[in-house]
Specification:
210 residues, five-stranded mixed β-sheet, 3 helices, mainly beta
Amino acid sequence: MKRIAIPALSALLLGLACDGSGPAIFQLLCFRLEGTAQFIVCGIDLDSLDSLTPVQLSGVLAAWETGQVPVDFTLDVGVRNPNDGITGPLLSLAQIVDFPWDLYVDQSSGSGFDTAWVASGEILDPVDVPGDSETVIVPVAVSFDAVQVLDALGPLGFVDLVLAVGGIDGDTRDEDRLGRLLLRAEPSVDTPFGTMEYPGGIWVWLDWSS
């Protein structure tokens, strides 16, 4: 199948806004962060926790001293295809075939974004996105050693971070919780027009982006 970079489709893609505004004929897929799941730190499942017990905290602190604090979780990325045939033509099915990504975290809970890279990867399987404007989840499997990439935070700052993004309130879509994660991705999407690519990639955060 032929591969078509986004600029080459400029005559067709007259409006790219995810909110449907403007004279859109064909809109790109839209992405945003939806939440985290199965957030495991040193074997501790944080999904239902808002704090660590003294024993759990001691275990994380001890692991930090050894230089190995494994972190594993799934980052749910929402994607929707706005081409539902109502405000423009119908794109009945698009398929995300590649989704190389880099994950960054905000090391500061205050204003601004103190960015630190933590992991890179790719999705395991293609994801179908029907043209009905419904949100489809792209599961992004994330693994890293916190001491190697977040040493500047220190162990207590690290615990605050993972509870914010992976604890019981981790799916809260604001800047102090889920918003401390930021994803850079380079999707490749198969469509009836060919394979669309996003030169330079896109930033995926709390708001829909394309």
